[in-house]
Amino acid sequence: MDTAGILLQTPIFRDLSVQDVEELLPDVRQRSFGRGQTIWIEGDPADELVVVAEGQLKAHRVNLDGREVILRVYPAVGITGEVGLFHPRGARWLSLSAMTASTCLMIRRAPLLAFLGRHPAAMQRMLEHLSIAAVHAAYSFSGVAFGDIGHRVADLLVSLVEEYGEQTPDGIRLRLRLSQSELAKHVAASRENVNRALAALVGAGVVSQRGGHFYIHDRAALEQAARAADL
């Protein structure tokens, strides 16, 4: 595995050179996880940053009745764990599990901090990444409070397009693999209600789903559906 090459594709290290990230390689360890395997649970000590090398992870919470809400999904070259890592409590605020068989690069807090201190460009990217996480959390909460299910589904798809969309001849493809059940857990709604909201978008030719991936065929219409509840 080209560990340096993977790090250079991430939001944190993308401005650096190969020689820069090679300084960190002695402190990077590789771990593999099977589908459904827990990486950590809410409340565990937070002492490592995770870079997804292969596969897909989900950050989630589960209530006492076993109902799950997915807060974020991380595909290859995604980064997670930074919130707990830098929080004064030093604890995980969400659980993290593998949605598919995954390989991760784990970087412990102390060597990461030393590295960021030597590389201001990476430090700036880390601060940006933390700011994005804070904004995402705020909008996720307000979206559940203010938006109906159709709006929440459209709004989520718009945000995923911005972060994970790639242009193909068939439209914008989301690199994430998401089932309708997983989409429902993202917007804190029942699968049946999410299916109805999706059916309206599919029927209008705005989106489609094939092979576990969503395709966006009319981004302007999707953005209009996302804004509709705010008008």
From TrEMBL:
One of its GO terms (molecular function) is DNA-binding transcription factor activity. It comes from the Bacteria. GO terms for cellular component: cytosol. Keywords: DNA-binding, Transcription, Transcription regulation. InterPro entries: cNMP-bd_dom, cNMP-bd_dom_sf, Env_Response_Regulators, HTH_CRP, RmlC-like_jellyroll, WH-like_DNA-bd_sf, WH_DNA-bd_sf. PROSITE patterns: CNMP_BINDING_3 (PS50042), HTH_CRP_2 (PS51063). CDD domains: CAP_ED. Gene3D superfamilies: Jelly Rolls (2.60.120.10), Winged helix-like DNA-binding domain superfamily/Winged helix DNA-binding domain (1.10.10.10). It comes from Prauserella muralis. This is Uncharacterized protein.
